[in-house]
Amino acid sequence: MTYAHTMAGNGAFHTAEDIAHRLRRVRRLAWILDAAFRLPGTRFRVGVDALVGLLPVGGSAVMGLVSLYIVWEAWRLRVPTALLARMVGNVLLETVVDTVPVAGDLFDAAFKANLRNVALLEQYFGQTGRTAP
């Protein structure tokens, strides 16, 4: 794997182990946010994001801010700006659509922006994607 292009905030290069550790951490968070609970009688999974998003007014905004943590970690890993923009776009799309009652909640539960963003990071760094920790 090539990680020489990824520098830490202090100018030192991130090690492969550091990148793998950060990816595991954001993968766990994404799984909790997007897929932690199985709907009874189905194979469909939802996470804390979909449940908190059901709260009127602020639920979607709060979960959008939490989702931006994964983007912040990607920024700290110095991924390309185009990849960061795509990740922010995923979070914004999910957050904005989630403000629509009922249909937005269904979209939020199906779109899973956090798992998508982790998959983008894993693809960029050449890691195999997983949806569960």
UniProtKB/TrEMBL annotation:
The chain crosses the membrane at residues 50-72. Keywords: Membrane, Transmembrane, Transmembrane helix. It comes from the Bacteria. InterPro entries: DUF4112. Pfam families: DUF4112. This is DUF4112 domain-containing protein. It comes from Acetobacter persici.
